[in-house]
Request: fold
Amino acid sequence: MYKRSAAFLFKSCIVKSRMYRPGFAVYITLCVCQALLLYEDSKMTEDIHVGGCLCGSVNFKVKGKPKASIFCHCKYCQKRTGSSVALLIYYHADSVESVTGPLKKHRHISDESGRWIDSEFCTNCGSPVTWTLELIPSWRGFEGGSFDNSSTFKCNVHQWCDNAHPSFEIKASDICYGKQVPFTTEQLEQL
Reply:
């Protein structure tokens, strides 16, 4: 996105410079500098992802690539998000640079595994934002839709497909588990 924006800015400067002949060299130099700064900013932040809740009271910043991204169709995620599926984005706790704002924690004990899930949501608007799992406490999960640019996360893994809403189409090429993704804590730590 930023590379395209820098190229667009540069091209628009060229077009404008044709209209404004006086000071052409100064104008084009300024435009090139703006385009280069925009491109350099994009390189610095391409691995930084930010997001937050609906009302903007809660914000977070994570760095690097996620450890995992999974579509979850379990009943808990359906109730928690109010949707038929949740996009779960997991980062190692060390990759979480900041989480700010008024969060309230709710502990849920899974009927299936007996493990806890600590979900955190905005106290003002109620948006679910982040959570930690007993299964892998060194990771922190974030709601895919809470990222400012959630389209950067690609996902082809589904869990709890046995509970998938009938209208949700899972591609034949996707990896689909009837229940939870079958990894142990030790296996997940190796990712």
Observations:
- Helices lie at 2-19, 24-45, 75-81, 185-189.
- Confidence is low (pLDDT under 50) at residues 1-45.
- The CA atoms of residues 53 and 126 lie 8 Å apart.
